[in-house]
Design goal:
The chain is of the alpha/beta class and 200 residues long. The protein is built from 7 helices and 13 strands. Zinc ion binds next to loops.
Length: 200
């Protein structure tokens, strides 16, 4: 999965989006990037509560000592993270409870840069996207991928809800907004509107 570090080059303040680090080398890579750029991490943001996105939560919280924000509807996924782990045959430390819940239309500000929250359920009930409207960036989690969409066969997944989230919330942004998804490479609203076989 993709872990993102979003930061301001002037103030050096930033956030971690989905610290899904599992292996030690993954944690080192994240840490090295943050250290070598002198970034001061202020928050940890979760697009949703699936284990591949939260495996590194405990490590990230202990390393950076900052609050974790997520949507409340995915709290059951955090509470039952160990069941998710057993289901997928992996082991990792139990992620601590989030410090604060975020919801539709909330705005998170980091060094004057603003993330608007859009609630985009379907892949999971508490999936959200973080939108920087000024820089035209959308951190989309597992909603829409390049040429694909998030799976809906997991707990509380719903294909109709997911398609509605994509068409009515994500696709309301202009074609030149870049989507940074939870898996695979980045794409744009325009490209997915025009070529994604699941969204025609
Ligand atoms: Zn997921």
């Amino acid at each position: 999965m993709n872990c993102y570090i979003y930061w301001d080059e002037k103030t050096k303040e930033g956030v971690i989006i989905d610290p899904g680090a599992y292996e030690d080398f993954e944690k080192e890579e994240i840490l090295n990037y943050i250290k070598s750029n002198g970034i001061d991490i202020k928050l940890i943001l979760l697009t949703h509560g699936h284990i591949d996105h939260i495996m590194g939560n405990k490590w990230a919280i202990e390393t950076f000592g900052v609050p974790v924000l997520m949507h409340k509807d995915d709290l059951p996924l955090i509470d039952r993270a160990m069941d998710q782990a057993a289901m997928f045959g992996v082991q990792f430390p139990k992620p601590p409870a989030p410090d604060k819940f975020i919801d539709e239309n909330d705005v998170i500000e980091v060094s004057g840069n603003k993330f608007k929250i859009i609630h985009t359920p379907g892949h999971s009930p508490g999936s959200v996207c973080f939108v920087d409207e000024k820089e035209k960036m959308i951190f989309g989690g597992d909603t829409v991928f390049r040429g694909s969409i998030g799976r809906t066969d997991l707990w509380m997944g719903d294909i109709d809800v997911l398609l509605s989230s994509i068409h009515n919330k994500i696709f309301k942004y202009a074609d030149d907004f870049v989507i940074y998804p939870g898996h695979m490479e980045e794409t744009t609203i325009g490209e997915e509107k025009n070529t994604n076989p699941f969204l025609q």
